[in-house]
Amino acid sequence: MPDLFRTIRFRLTLWxxxxxxxxxxxxxxxxxxxxxxxxxxxIDQELLDKAAQFSSVIRQSGMRGARNLAVIExxxxxxxxxxxxLLYPTGEVFASSHMSYWKDIQVDHAxxxxxxxxxxxxxxxRMMDNANKARILYTFVAxxxxxxxxxxxxxxxxxxxxxKRVFMVAMGFIVGFSALSGWFLVQxxxxxxxxxxxxxxxxxxxxxxxxxxxxxxxxxxxxxxxxFNRMLDRxxxxxxxxxxxxxxxxxxxxxxxTRIRGTAEMTLLQGESLEEFHTMAASTIEESDRxxxxxxxxxxxxxxxxxxxxxxxxxxxxxxMIQAACDLFTPVAEDKHIAFFCHVPGRFEVMADVNMxxxxxxxxxxxxxxxxxxxxxxxVETIRKNDQVLDIQVTxxxxxxxxxxxxxxxxxxxxxxxxxxxxxSGLGLSFARAVAREHDGDIQVQSSPGNGACFTLTLPYCNFxxx
Length: 467
Description:
Helix Hairpins, rod-shaped
């Protein structure tokens, strides 16, 4: 039970019941006071009608006629229902109906004073010793005659008491009905939250395929279910990427470690000269450098994607950097019998981390040479998109890339099947894109199988001069 009291179901039901009950109570109270006022207005009007009748009789028959009317009206209505007193302005009684039942009702001089002051009828409500109420009227029926008349409110009191009993019974029913209906509605509304909870509880590291059903109602819970499903899609994609990255990392790290261990073991078992041990040490250092470079590249990519990249920006002559990189890779391309063209008109200046951007651009050139067959061609050119953005295109005549891999090649350790035979870690393009985006740019690829590839490095520049 304590757990039930802390649930949203209980609290929503309590709020629903409370609001519904308070609204019903307010409606009943307003209706009760409206009924009280209506009954009182009816009694007041009846008393005024009696006073008008007395005024008319006095004008026609004098005070004797008024005395007779008081007795006749009292007997006709019932002596316990109504009484009449005729008073002088001083409060002295000179005629009345039978007053044995009304002995508790005396002349109230305060009411007389109000009547004398305002010259308009004055009403008063009095409690009698028998616990009944009476409505009293003081009004002039002649120049020197005042009528005090009163009607018992016993029937109205019984009616209002019955109304109160009905109100209490109805409120009990309303509270019970609102609690049950509120619980049912809340239970139905939150049942989909239970579905989301069960789905979340059923998800494990090895099972991410379950999704919350979406009803199509487009309500808040439907939006929540859709958001939750999209979150699961992202988590599943992330976990899948982590697993794939782990597998690729294990594969790519295994090879140099295996070579280091194999070289060391062979040297220890068969090595006889100092030169062989020197060769083993050099090979170990080379493989260790490859491992360290791979790990450092991974760290740079991870920190950059997390917004924690350690970049130092300064003005850079981009044209000079591109030409220097092309000059560096031209001999490598010629050795492979690949035509290498570099067309960079104008002088572009950017704010960049020199080492990071040089390394990213070098990765693009290295990939182009690596995957272009002898006799092929590589072209590097710059294209001004507008006064703020520059495209650096590296186009090759290699085997091309399938459309399905256009985005995946920028993932860490991903390598298409056609590139598995080529040396590399699968981090170059991922690193290049991370660096480009840290410079408020990007890298995109346009390619199709058999038609080469065009990698476009987009960067914002701050200055341009015609060369």
